[in-house]
Amino acid sequence: MPDAPSTATAEDTLRALFAEVLGVPEAGPDDSFTGLGGDSILAIQLVSRARLAGLVLSTRDVLRKDTVRALAAAAREPERTAPADPPQRTGRITPTPIMHWLRELGGPVDTYHQSLVVRTPAGLQQDALETILQALLDTHDALRLRLPSGTASAVWEPVIEPPGAVAAAGLLVRTDARDVDDAALPEMMKRHIAVARGLLAPQNGVMVRAVWLDRGPARQGRLALLVHHLVVDGVSWRILQDDLVTCWEALSRGEEPRPEPARTPFAHWSAVLATEAGRGRRMAEAGAWQETLRTDPAPLGGICALDRLAPERAECTFTVTLPSEVTVPLLTGAPSLVNGTVNDVLLTGLALAVLAWRRGQGGGADDGGAVLVDLEGHGREELTEGLDLSRTVGWFTSVYPVRFALGAVDTDDARSGGAAVGAALRQVKEALRAVPDKGIGHGLLRHLNSLTGPGLAARGIPGIGFNYLGRFPMGDEADWAAAPGHDFALDSADEGLPMAHAVEVNSAAHEGPGGLVLTATWTWADNAYRAEQVRALADEWFAMLTAVAAHAQRPGTGGPTPSDVSLSGISQADLDDFASQLGELL
């Protein structure tokens, strides 16, 4: 068992890391990680940076213990000996559930990627940049993944090549941009990214491309990293961006860059998933997942499932932003109302919005107040003792359905910030807490188990998909920081790749010049809904989120929910009665 570090030293380190990860000026010993706006994705980043600073924590530690003081007491020092039986890092791996999910969409995916544009140091030399990129390729196994049979085959058999098999020099394109002003850089980079994405080739193991706009010795350049979505996700980008910084710092000291490798390699994780899918306790979930998917509550008047739509459709999209004066109390105050999370709050607003929108469309009379949503989670669950995915690059996303049954909720009262908001927030939180291991079992049973997979596949999918990518700090002028004017590309899909849902919502919180804002990109199939219908739903969602934020600022509106207490069989009504009686005594 590793020794515990000095509590005082650990507190100082964690206070600095809280401020760094959460983008706040400072953090005190009793400040709450979630109270300062932290979420499960940022918790993974905190765990990763804490390990680099010599403190071992788990994501579960961060979300349960929550404060600097409690985490400092729980922190351990890293083990100083390598495991006797190192886990698999290379070779053929079992396709993960999300890989199967993508393959089953049935369209072209060769250029399906995410990208990030960062500032590069003035005077950066090409050989130095190639050295940094090579260090990333050699450290993070998933970046060397190859699909020998190609993405069009009926069966994917991914292989991870050994370090050194992929040469960074062949993936980097340098362009002289010394005479290009700042305002013209985004458009110039956009053109180069359009070319680079076409050079991704999973069959040949080309999962990464890089474009460097070199602006010479006096001005910062720009680097675009394009990574195939099969091997990267939102958490991975945070790891890669941190590694760009540490590699550059090592080179600047005259040292060889050596990013810390993953404690749990991606290949080992894929094997863990394959084993987990066959465990009896996991297979016991199948009935609950089938019940969740028994029917989409509103196949006509509401959000309808895409498999009931004609395949010929155009994909439409728009992005909306919730102002800072609403976002800040919504994300930093409202979750603590019910000892909850940011997802609890956002999904409460979405469930209320769908019900109100559905009723406004003339439907919903027989829906029982139910809303069925496909959720995306980060998927980095601690399934077995010793797993540490805080430094593992790859696509870990889990996709799973959740049914929110709000009954005869008064959506008009909710929209005004009334008691209906609090009731809905408690119901949504409890529905999410009832999902085992944050939904990872659905993908395991749907894609990796031949006994349970066919039954789940026959149920179809919900009509609406939702993803919250977490909180991103404001880009500054530091080297390797996100560059202004360049949007982080969530999912740049191939033309012709079918949508998974009739309506999809991808959201994230961003620190901007005016403060923290929530942005949401809505995408829909035009043969399912008209633009004005989806815009009305987006407006309704923001109206409900505004109501949640207002409700959270009213005194006496919070309180525990059944999942907060260890007594079995206790209901929300029991807790509310107890709180009322206690209030009368006080």
UniProtKB/TrEMBL annotation:
Keywords: Phosphopantetheine, Phosphoprotein. GO terms for molecular function: catalytic activity; phosphopantetheine binding. PANTHER family: ENZYME, PUTATIVE (JCVI)-RELATED (PTHR45398:SF1), PTHR45398. Residues 74-93 are annotated as: Disordered. InterPro entries: ACP-like_sf, CAT-like_dom_sf, Condensation_dom, NRPS_synth, PKS_PP-bd, PP-bd_ACP, Ppantetheine_attach_site. SUPFAM superfamilies: ACP-like (SSF47336), CoA-dependent acyltransferases (SSF52777). Its cofactor is pantetheine 4'-phosphate. This is Peptide synthetase. It comes from Streptomyces morookaense. Residues 5-79 form the Carrier domain. One of its GO terms (biological process) is antibiotic biosynthetic process.
